[in-house]
Structure formats: structure tokens, C-alpha cells
Amino acid sequence: MMNRDELLEAMENTINDINQVKEKINQTGEPSILDQLRRKLKELVDQHFRLIDQLG
Fold first, then answer.
1. pLDDT number for residue 23
2. How far is CA 26 from CA 4, 21, 40, in A?
3. What does the alpha-carbon distance between residue 41 and residue 38 come to, in Å, rounded to a whole number?
4. What torsion do the CA atoms of 23, 29, 32, 38 make, to the nearest 10 degrees?
5. pLDDT (tens digit, 9 = 90+) per residue, 13-38?
6. What is the pLDDT of residue 56?
7. Distance between CA 28 and CA 45 in Å, rounded?
8. How far apart (Å, rounded) are the C-alpha atoms in residues 14 and 41?
9. What is the pTM of this model?
10. DSSP 40
11. Residues 19, 20, 21, 23: is their CA dihedral positive or negative?
12. CB hemisphere CA count around 26 (13 angstroms)
């Protein structure tokens, strides 16, 4: 189990990753790449909410 500071840092990292994926989605028009990026975005958002749940 991570401590509070580790959780907050991990949450910040997932937010940065989410923003990077969102930027890539806005830059690409390729449908297959968009599908991959959307899946990655969903994984990151799910991971972020799991961290929030751990934080309590």
C-alpha cells in the first residue's frame, strides 16, 4: 500500500499521462490509432480513480 504522498504523486502522474493521450487524440485523424488512444485513456482514468479510492 502506498502512503499518501506516493498516492498523490501517482495521481499527478496519471493526470499528466491523461493529458498527453488527450493531446495525441486531438492530433491524429487515424481511426485505428484513435481507438488505441481511447483505450489507453480509459485505462488511465480507471487507474486514476483507483488511486483516489486508495487515498480514501
1. 93
2. 33, 9, 14
3. 5
4. 30
5. 999 999 999 999 999 888 899 999 99
6. 83
7. 20
8. 10
9. 0.85
10. H
11. positive
12. 6
Q: How many helices (H) and strands (E) does the chain have?
A: 2, 0
d(CA 54, CA 1): 8
Q: CA-to-CA distance for 56 and 41, rounded, in angstroms? A: 23
Residue identified by cell 480514501 is: 56
* Amino acid at position 27, single letter: Q
What is the distance between the alpha carbons of residues 15 and 24, in angstroms, rounded to a whole number? 14
Amino acid identity for residue 25 in this structure: I
Please tell me the chain's helix, strand, coil percentages from 3-state DSSP, rounded to the nearest 5.
90, 0, 10
Rounded Cα gap, residues 52 and 45, in angstroms: 11
Q: Residues of 20-47 as b/e, b for ≥16 C-beta within 10 angstroms? A: ebeeeeeeeeeeeeeeebeebbeebeeb
